[in-house]
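Quick check before the chapter quiz. The format below is the same one you will see on the exam, so make sure you can read both the input and the output lines.
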Amino acid sequence: MIIIGIAGGSGSGKTTLARNISEHFTDRISILRHDDYYKSQSDIPERERAELNYDHPSAFDTELLISHLDMLRRGESVSSPVYDYTIHDRSGRTRNVLASEVVILEGILIFENEDILSRLDMKIFVDTDPDVRIIRRIVRDVKKRGRTLESVIAQYLATVKPMHEAFVEPSKKRADIIIPEGGKNPVAYGMIIDKIESYLAKK
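Here is the expected output.
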C-alpha cells in the first residue's frame, strides 16, 4: 500500500487532482477527505457553528484520522465520517473506505501535523495563485454549499486567508512534489502517475 497526501490551499485543485488519480487507478484506490474529519459540533447551534474557525488545526479530529490511517495500513477498512457543509457539521452518515493499494488523503492542513505527515509515503502540494483560489471558492461555496457571496468573502478574510498564511503555506516546504494548478497540469499529473506505478511495482 502507498498512502499519498495531497495538500494545498482552499480552491487550489486538490480534489481535482485526487479525482484524476482515482480515475487512473480505478478499483485500486481509496480516498480520505480531511474535511470529513472536522470535529462534531452537534452541541452548538447552527448559527454559532457558522462562525467557527474551520481553517485552524484544532478544528479537526486528528486522533480519529490517524487511527484510520493506521487501520488502513494494517489492511483494515474504516468508516469515515461524512461532513455536511450546509449545516457546518458531520452529517451522521459514514462512508466505507477500503484498504486499497493506493490511499489518497487530501486536505488543506495534512502537512501541518507531524503525526499525519509521518504516515504519508508521498506528499504532493498543489500551489495555485490566491486570486484563482478565492474565485474557485466563491463559485463552489455559493453553488454547492448554500453560502452567500457575502458570507464566503467574510469567512475568507476572517479565517481562510490568515490561517493559510499561518499554517498551509509554511507546510509547503514539507512536500516531496510541488505542482501548480493541480488537476489542470497534465505534465505534472503524468509524472505523479508514473511515480505511483513505480512505487507500487517496488512494493
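If your answer matched, good. The chain has one domain: 2-196.
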